[in-house]
Every structure is written in C-alpha cells, then in structure tokens.
Amino acid sequence: MIRVSPSHSSLRRFPVPTGTSPALTTPVPGALNNERARELAAQFPLLQRSVMDQPLVYLDSGATSQRPQSVLDAEFDFLRSSYSAVHRGAHTVAVEATDAFEQARETVANFVGAGPREIVWTSNATEAINLITYAFSNASAGSNGAGEASQQFRLGPGDQIVVTESEHHANLVPWQELCARTGAELRWIPVDDHGVLDLPAVDSVITEQTRVVSFTHVSNVTGAVNDVAALVDAARKVGAFTVLDACQSVPHLPVNFHELGVDFAAFSGHKMLGPTGIGALYGRAELLDVLPTFLTGGSMITSVTMERSEYLPAPTRFEAGTQRISQAVALAEAVRFLDAVGMENVATWESELGQRLAAGVAQLPGIRLIGPQPGVDRVGLASVVVEGVHAHDVGQLLDVAGVAVRVGHHCAQPLHRRLGVTATTRASTYLYNTTDDVDRLLNELAGVRRYFRLED
C-alpha cells in the first residue's frame, strides 16, 4: 500500500468554513447541464470545501450522497419547534410531530409510486430486507402474528430463493440466513464477463420450486440497470414473490413500484440527499397486512395480555419502539428537492455523466472498465481496475488530488470474485456533478500508472 506523508493523510480533519452557507433557492424543473448542476451544488454546504488544498470533487454518492441546506434546515427546524414522540401523546407538540411524521411517509410514498400504508420506516435498506426475511422465517415457524393468510410466506426444504450474482451483501446474506433457518435452497442468476446479468439463464434458474426472486434494480458496482420487467414476469409465471433492492435506483431514476409490479422493495435515505438512520420497506398493502411481524414491543400493538398480543395493521405493525422522527422529516424534504429538480432530468444528466465516465476510462491504457461498456445503458457510476495498482492506492492518490471515490469490494465480494478482481475503484455521480468533475477524475486516473512507474 502507498504511504503518503502526514500532511497528505486521507485521515486528516479539515474544518468546514463558517459563514459560507449558500442562499437557498428552490430548484425548478428543467434539463440539467453543467450550469444547472453548479447552481444545485451551491445548495450543498459540504461541496464548498477543499481537501488537500484542492477544490473537492465528490464522486462517492453511490455510498452516501450529500445533503442540501434545505434538508439540513428541515430537520433542525423540526427538532427546534415540534420534536416529540409520535403516536403516543395528545398534547400539541406530540400531535404536530405525529402529523409531520405521517406527512413525511405520504411524501415519500408518492415519490416511489406507492400508497402511504405501503411504506414502512426502517433504519436503512439492510434492515428493510432483513425485515422481509425474518417475517418469512416467522411465517414458517408460525410465530409473531402468523395466521392462516401468512402461510403463503412459509418456506421449507424443496423451496428455492433466487438472487443474482451481482447483489450487494445486504441482498444476499439475509437470504442465505433464511435458507439456513428454513431449509430452502439458494440459487442465483449468473453475470457475464462484464458483470452484467445473464438474462438468458433466467429460465433455467427460476423454476416451479422458486418462492422468492430478490434482485437489485441498479448494480452498485457496475452501474448496470437490470430489466425489472423481465425478472418480475419470470417470477410471476411460477408464483414467486419479488423483492427489489432499489438503493441505487430510487435516488437516480424515476421509480414507480406499482408500475414495476414488484411485491416488496427497499431503499435508503442517505443515498438520496437525506440523512443516515432512515430507509424504507415498500410492500403491497395486501401482503404487508398479513406478513408476520419482525421487531415487537411498544407502539405496534392493539392489545396485550400476559398471555398474548394483537398487532396493528401495516405499516405500524412493523414500527416497534421510538421511530426515526426527525430523519423522516428530513427525508421528505430531500424528496421535495428531488421532485423540484425532476427525476427524469436527474436520470438523463446522470446517464450522460455515466457514458462520459465509461468512454473516458475505455481510452485509458492499463485501466479496465467494470460493467456495461460505452454506449450501453448505465447510471452515472463506473468501477475500474488499474493494472498493477491496488484500488486502495488508487483511491489515496485521487484523494490527494481532491477527488473522493470509493475503493474496495463495495459489499459485493461474489461479483468481484466472478470478475477475477479483489477490489475496484468506483466513481459515482449525482445531480450536483458536472462534466468537469468527470474529466478531473479521468485526468487523475491517467497518471496513476505513471506514478508507480508502470508506464512512461
């Protein structure tokens, strides 16, 4: 691993400048371009800072996006004026908090084409997927409110759960554990040499024994956009439930869960201009109402005796304990920001940035592009392998140049293993990035192998 001097350590802390908060302006719909992206970036305080005495180029939104001032203000204003427990108190502040909490649910539900009763608040998408798997497990065990209607979720030996070879660990490990608990078999749809899903293999992987098909909408490693319609259709033909990992699609593409036809979906707030600590599970209302509970305790019950408990309808039956109240309010404000920009505009701009990334990398000698090749549909994300240089070393050199990227296996070890690499360097854009940001990354990448004297 490369070692940089203490003055250039990527662990060095830089104070955020004070007195530089931008004046707020409400985004207006319209095609995104460099000028508009810069205008939007001005609304994000962190993007105004420098790193290593260089203007920051933030290309790690696939991991965690930045927050505009309006989102920061929305959470602080709520905490300052209406913070209280929800669904518990009858006093004025508690009622205000509950109203804000439920209005946030409605705002987020509308954003993803769902009804408010179909959105369950979770801490993140990982918890949302675990909620599903443990609910299926409880149905199989006949516990946590499992009734006759929940028998449709029972799993056992002879049943199959299908995922893909490109899944984030959050949409793989919970299913592995569910198979271990129930005796079901885990199967997966393979990827090709570029890490793109092998759709012709679907018909042989999904069989009459398949009960669940869980897959990512957009790969967090390759940026490939999977054919949701084809996978949903294949699952429906055998009567299997579909679960969509929408973490990399909800922030970047127009998404309507009803139109996509999936049964369940998961996404996280921190990848879509919102705070950490909040995500959501989408489930079709008729399924959530009969799905056994996962976490149990206060606030999700109708009656409790010393012998047994009765649970509220969805979504409250899945929201035990004190909830993510201010985070929900902030996420709703993030959704309003995205709605104001227009998700079609976001998707078009990021597609352009993604193609610029792919085409630029393809022209760099000694650097391999992972995922769809130039000209093939992708979001504004690209992972690369620099021949002869570990991804962590690449990331440190870029950091010294003020370019923030992600390095490692991105919680997708099976995909990296399939592609014959241990780690990649990933750049991911968002609505506040420009073509200049992409070009700055490409220019820095071009010099990595020369730095290590692997080429002239």
Automatic annotation (TrEMBL):
SUPFAM superfamilies: PLP-dependent transferases
GO MF term set: cysteine desulfurase activity; pyridoxal phosphate binding
GO biological process: cysteine metabolic process
Cofactor or coenzyme needed: pyridoxal 5'-phosphate
InterPro entries linked: Aminotrans_V_dom, Aminotrans_V_PyrdxlP_BS, Cys_dSase_SufS, PyrdxlP-dep_Trfase, PyrdxlP-dep_Trfase_major, PyrdxlP-dep_Trfase_small
Alphabetically ordered keywords of this record: Pyridoxal phosphate, Transferase
EC top class named in words: transferase
Aminotransferase class V domain location: 57-441
UniProt xrefs under CDD domains: SufS_like
Region named Disordered: 1-29
Xref: Pfam families: Aminotran_5 (PF00266)
Enzyme Commission (EC) number: 2.8.1.7
Catalysed conversion reaction: (sulfur carrier)-H + L-cysteine = (sulfur carrier)-SH + L-alanine
PANTHER family: CYSTEINE DESULFURASE, CYSTEINE DESULFURASE 1, CHLOROPLASTIC
Function: Catalyzes the removal of elemental sulfur and selenium atoms from L-cysteine, L-cystine, L-selenocysteine, and L-selenocystine to produce L-alanine.
Family that this chain belongs to: Belongs to the class-V pyridoxal-phosphate-dependent aminotransferase family. Csd subfamily.
Name of the protein described by the UniProt record: Cysteine desulfurase
Species of provenance: Kocuria subflava
Highest classification ranks of the organism: Bacteria, Bacillati, Actinomycetota, Actinomycetes, Micrococcales
